[in-house]
C-alpha cells in the first residue's frame, strides 16, 4: 500500500487541495476525550460547589428563621404577659377589699405572675421553660377572667342590694314620715285634749251675792247706804265639775270701785291670753270633783265706801268664771 505524505494543515502537496482521505490522528482523539472528561469533572465540581453553597445557605436561613421564630415567640409571650399583668393589676387595684374566695384567687394570680415573670426575664430560658411560661400565661388569663366574672357578679349583686337598700330607705323614710305625722297628730290630739280638759276643768261660779254690812260690835246688819257700810260680804257657789280634779283651787276676785279703779292687792295671776292681771282678793278652796262648793269671804275697802256701782269679777284657770254688780246709795 502506498501512503501519501500528510501535513497538518490538511493540504496534499501533490494535489494542491484537501486530501480525499483526511483522518484525525489517534493521539488527538485521546486528548479530546481527556479534555471532555476534565470538562465534565469541572462542571460536576462547580455543580457540587453551587449545590453545597445553596444547601449551606438554606440551612443558615432555616437556622436564622428558627432564631427569629424563637425571638418572636418570646416577644409575643412577653407582650401577652404584660397585657394580662396590667389587666390583673387594674382589677385588683380597683377592688382592694377582696375577701374570701376572691382574695384567694387574687393570691393565685400574683403567684402565677411571679413565676411567668421569672421565666421571661431569663434570657437563657429553654423551649421547655418558654412552653411552661406559655401554659402558665393561659392559666393566668383563665384565672383573671374568672376573677373578673366574680367581681362583676358581686358588683351586680351589690348594685341590686344598693337599689334594694335605697328602696327600703325610701320606704323607711316614708314610714317614718307617716309615723312622725301620726305622732304629730297624736301629740296635737293629746295637746288639744289636754287643752280641752284644762278648759273643761275650769270652775264655774254662780249665785254670786254681795251684801253691804254695817257692823256694830259683834252685830252685823245689812245696809244699802254707802256711809253706813263697813265691808262687803261676798258669797257664791262653785258648780259641779266632773273633769276638775279634787285638790286646792285658787279663785281670784277683782273688785272695782264706782270710778272703775281696781281695789289692788299685792299679787297678779295670768289670764288665758297670757297677760298678767292684778286681783283684789285670792280665795283658796278645797275642791271635790263633781261636788258643788259654797264660797264666801269679806272685803274691806280700806276706806269709806262711796255710793255707786261696785263690780265684782271671779277668775279661775285664767278665765272669768262669774261677775256681778253691787249698787249702794
Summarize, please.
With 329 residues, this protein is an alpha+beta fold. The chain has 3 helices and 12 strands, in the order E-E-H-H-H-E-E-E-E-E-E-E-E-E-E.
Secondary-structure-derived class = alpha+beta
Return the domain count.
2
Give the overall shape. Answer: rod-shaped
Neighbour order of strands in the largest sheet: 4-3-5-10
Largest sheet: 4 strands, antiparallel
Rg (C-alpha, Å): 68 Å
β-strand number: 12
**Weakly predicted, low-confidence segments:** 1-20
Mean pLDDT: 81
The amount of beta strand, in percent, is 15-25%
Roughly how much helix do the residues carry, as a percent range? 40-55%
Q: Report, as a whole number of angstroms, the end-to-end distance.
A: 221 Å
The ordered H/E elements are EEHHHEEEEEEEEEE
Count of DSSP-assigned helices:
3
What does it look like?
This protein is an alpha+beta fold. It folds into two domains: 174 residues, no CATH class; 124 residues, Sandwich (Immunoglobulin-like). It contains three helices and twelve strands. The strands form four sheets. It has a four-stranded antiparallel beta sheet, with no helix packed on it. A hairpin with a 2-residue loop joins β11 and β12. The N and C termini lie far apart (221 Å).
Amino acid at each position: 500500500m502506498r501512503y501519501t505524505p500528510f501535513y497538518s494543515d490538511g493540504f496534499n502537496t501533490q494535489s494542491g487541495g484537501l486530501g480525499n482521505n483526511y483522518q484525525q490522528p489517534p493521539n488527538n482523539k485521546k486528548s479530546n476525550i481527556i479534555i471532555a472528561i476534565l470538562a465534565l469533572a469541572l462542571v460536576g465540581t462547580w455543580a457540587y460547589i453551587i449545590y453545597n453553597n445553596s444547601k449551606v445557605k438554606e440551612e443558615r436561613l432555616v437556622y436564622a428563621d428558627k432564631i427569629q421564630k424563637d425571638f418572636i415567640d418570646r416577644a409575643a409571650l412577653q407582650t401577652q404577659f404584660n397585657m394580662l399583668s396590667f389587666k390583673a393589676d387594674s382589677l385588683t387595684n380597683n377592688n382592694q377589699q377582696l375577701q374570701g374566695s376572691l382574695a384567694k384567687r387574687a393570691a393565685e394570680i400574683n403567684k402565677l405572675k411571679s413565676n411567668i415573670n421569672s421565666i421571661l426575664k431569663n434570657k437563657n430560658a429553654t423551649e421547655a421553660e418558654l412552653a411552661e411560661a406559655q401554659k402558665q400565661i393561659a392559666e393566668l388569663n383563665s384565672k383573671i377572667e374568672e376573677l373578673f366574672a366574680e367581681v362583676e357578679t358581686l358588683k351586680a349583686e351589690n348594685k341590686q342590694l344598693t337599689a334594694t337598700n335605697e328602696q327600703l330607705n325610701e320606704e323607711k323614710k316614708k314610714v317614718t314620715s307617716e309615723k312622725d305625722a301620726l305622732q304629730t297628730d297624736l301629740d296635737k290630739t293629746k295637746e288639744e285634749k289636754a287643752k280641752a280638759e284644762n278648759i273643761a276643768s275650769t270652775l264655774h261660779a254662780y249665785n254670786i251675792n254681795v251684801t253691804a254690812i254695817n257692823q256694830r260690835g259683834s252685830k252685823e246688819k245689812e245696809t244699802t247706804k254707802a256711809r253706813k257700810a263697813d265691808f262687803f260680804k261676798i258669797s257664791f257657789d262653785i258648780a259641779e265639775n266632773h273633769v276638775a280634779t279634787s285638790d286646792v283651787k285658787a279663785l281670784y276676785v277683782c273688785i272695782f270701785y264706782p270710778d272703775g279703779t281696781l281695789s289692788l292687792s299685792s299679787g297678779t295671776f295670768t289670764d288665758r291670753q297670757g297677760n298678767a292681771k292684778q286681783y283684789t282678793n285670792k280665795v283658796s278652796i278645797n275642791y271635790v270633783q263633781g261636788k258643788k262648793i259654797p264660797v264666801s269671804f269679806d272685803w274691806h275697802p280700806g276706806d269709806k265706801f262711796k255710793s255707786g256701782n261696785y263690780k265684782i269679777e271671779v277668775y279661775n284657770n285664767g278665765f272669768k268664771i262669774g261677775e256681778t254688780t253691787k249698787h249702794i246709795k
